[in-house]
Amino acid sequence: MQKWTIKGLLDWVNQYLSEKKVDSARLGAELILSYILEKSRIELYTHFDMVVEKPQLDRLHQLVKRAGEHEPVAYLVGKCEFYSLEIFVDSSCLIPRPETELLVEKAIDFLRRQGQQKPLVCDLCTGSGCVAAAIAKNHPSASIIATDISEKALVIAAKNIAHHKLNDRVELLCGDLFEPVIKHVDKDAFDLIVSNPPYVSAAEFQTLDRNVKDYEPQSALLAGEAGLDVYRKIAANIDGHLKVGGAVMLEIGYSQAEAVTKLLEAAAAFGSIKVEKDFAGNDRLITARKCQ
Ligand SMILES: C[S@@+](CC[C@H](N)C(=O)[O-])C[C@H]1O[C@@H](n2cnc3c(N)ncnc32)[C@H](O)[C@@H]1O
User: Fold this and answer.
1) Res 292 pLDDT > 90
2) How far, in Å, from the CA of 175 to the mean position of ligand 1?
3) Residue 121 CA neighbour count, 13 Å, CB half
4) pLDDT of 121
5) Which of 195, 196, 282, 284 could covalently link to 254 via disulfide, CB atoms 3.0 to 4.6 Å apart?
6) Which ligand 1 atom sits closest to the C-alpha of 93?
7) Per-residue DSSP letter, 52
């Protein structure tokens, strides 16, 4: 019987996934093999000639077949990386995107500049808890209340918050946007409100890649006909939750800057409303500071 080395397998999986038109095939091959062999990606390269045994080969085949059908590799291996943190995921939550790191970066920057001793942050639509975990990890005096409407997603968020030892500073609540927060904090309590809400329009949903459309939860993606439903609800309720001098930061779709700006202008006395671009040059973040 043919013996399969790590090198041979990496090449074979890469070729198989490339033929199936899976994005980032080589990276996918490395992540699946790392997971099966319980080795880091670097260790795969330092053990190139290691022969892989039959039980592991069988498991590898199963996962590679599913990846070839465009099931996201992060779901297959149960985790991904976000803001240099290991984040567990499953099919009940969105896989954190690199674009969302901009929201985290600007949030940490704002908290540092604001200089509050113990800032209180609200993360709406927390999903896997990636944004809350990354902010809390990088701003050790911040406390965060994170909400999501999906109980299943919050099970994963709880696993991530515990994994990063943040239980004493990140509280997870289940419910519709601010609704579960009301019993827990006073009016105008937050120094910063962040959110990466669902923002895909009905038309855009049809154009999404198979790995997104067929596998990620629709409730994490879709937000009504124009993709603005959740922003509308956030804007309608934000004034009573944000301190004067506090900020709101919302991730947006590339074509939504104008519409979300208008919603915020009508929502509260925001001094300036700023739109920022992601690394691909697309509008990605709206930041507004409450001035009175
Ligand atoms: C785009 S995902 C973002 C997840 C995570 N914050 C991230 O950046 O990867 C949106 C999340 O919003 C949640 N969600 C949708 N509608 C909601 C609502 N009305 N209230 C609270 N959470 C909601 C979904 O369950 C999903 O987890």
Assistant:
1) no
2) 11
3) 32
4) 98
5) 282
6) 27
7) P
Where does the chain have alpha helices with state H?
6-19, 25-37, 41-46, 54-68, 73-77, 101-114, 130-138, 151-163, 202-207, 210-213, 229-238, 257-267
- For residue 1, is pLDDT > 80? no
Rounded distance between C-alpha atoms, residue 24 and residue 18, angstroms: 8
Q: Are 202 and 224 in contact (CB under 8 A)?
A: yes
> What is residue 257's predicted lDDT score, i.e. its pLDDT?
98
Amino acid at 65: K
Q: How far is the CA of 51 from the centre of ligand 1 (A)?
A: 43
pLDDT digits (tens, 9 = 90+) for 5-24: 999 999 999 999 999 999 99
Domains of the chain: 6-77 (1.10.8.10), 92-290 (3.40.50.150)
What is the residue with the minimal CA distance to atom 19 of ligand 1?
176
Please, what is the angle between helix 6-19 and helix 25-37, to 10°?
A: 140
Say yes or no: CB of residue 93 within 6 Å of ligand 1: yes
- Per-residue pLDDT, 187: 87
Q: Is the full-model pTM beyond 0.85?
A: yes
Q: Is the CB of 147 under 6 A from ligand 1?
A: yes
**What is the rounded CA–CA span in Å between residue 196 and residue 217?**
14
Q: What is d(CA 74, CA 158) in angstroms, rounded to the nearest whole number?
A: 18
- pLDDT tens, position by position, 23-68: 999 999 999 999 999 999 999 999 999 999 999 999 999 999 999 9
